[in-house]
Amino acid sequence: MKLLEDRIRKDGIIREGNVLKVDSFINHQMDIALFREMAREWKRLFAGKPINKVLTIEASGIGIAAVVASELNVPVVFAKKSMSINLDYDNYETQIQSFTHKKIYNVIVSKKFLTPEDHLLIVDDFLANGCALMGLLELAAEAGATVEGIGIGIEKGFQAGGELVRSKGVQLESLAIIESMDSTTGEIVFRPQPHQS
Amino acid sequence: MKLLEDRIRKDGIIREGNVLKVDSFINHQMDIALFREMAREWKRLFAGKPINKVLTIEASGIGIAAVVASELNVPVVFAKKSMSINLDYDNYETQIQSFTHKKIYNVIVSKKFLTPEDHLLIVDDFLANGCALMGLLELAAEAGATVEGIGIGIEKGFQAGGELVRSKGVQLESLAIIESMDSTTGEIVFRPQPHQS
Prior knowledge:
- Chains A, B: Converts the preformed base xanthine, a product of nucleic acid breakdown, to xanthosine 5'-monophosphate (XMP), so it can be reused for RNA or DNA synthesis.
- Two copies of one chain form a homodimer.
- Chain A is an alpha/beta fold.
- In chain A, 28% of the residues lie in helices and 35% in strands.
- The first copy, chain A, has a single domain, classed as Rossmann fold.
- Chain A contains five helices and eleven strands.
- In chain A, the strands form two sheets. An eight-stranded mixed sheet of chain A has the order 6-7-5-4-8-9-10-11, with helices on both faces. Chain A has a two-stranded antiparallel ribbon with strand order 1-2.
């Protein structure tokens, strides 16, 4: 999606070690007008799919998911990291590793909110190694829900996650796929995606 | 707001110890259509205020904040719990106590995203003892930002947070204020708010 690629070029900050900071518009400050355009693009890309729920994971996925769900007129369920004493113990549960935070999280979704009747659009801001996404796919599979598609903001195309998920045959639409980036020159190369706007 | 009060009566679950579970529509599964109506009510209640940003705290505040920000056409900034290695160390920081999770969190906002130019609407799903909200007010004060108002989904009117915040002279609009609830009968008494819809 050209709008997102242009914004990453303009406001993204590349750090050594293939770190891309987009905290001024995606995952700390959130540009909701941009999210709305992203939501409309996913609506177009997943048109005709019987999506009845958006699934994401806390925390930075929630904002994008809420705007997408508003566009699709469906509810959101967000998977929670770690156990809250306010939750029922009747949950689907899996573990995911966060490289950013160097931790392993328990990730849970209440069995009440993921069922075999659900046709999910999974949404998240980033896809790199795919750990979070594989965790969400596992929760959906445990619940017997159908994953109609996956919408990702920014995919690091040089890491394994995208390939891993595409090999499962799920329609994955990352609105910007970074092939390479250079922290010294600031140059970013995006993968061409002619079917996107 | 009658719509929210009715929904709490219908789908809220009262547990012993004054615990109210609203995870089927507010803070695990999120009813975005309801959030949109809440956002419109806040837009009406804070009409005329020069709000240029919504401030909230991860995680369950983010969904409501995103929908409110979409309605007001402004960005969201969410305060983060605990330090991520992807963040700059140039942050406003405070501590808040979570009674639900029995922990003390560091809460941070990048100095880039809260400034003296900001006129904030602070949004969160719940207000009980007010710890999270006092933390957000402190971050806003550190930044020299103006708090134009506070929008809360559900306030536990029998806990101290609401009184504490109102005594500071900030316009606080909780869309449902629970005066009392009874886990044996399921009865909930809401505080009358004739100025709300």
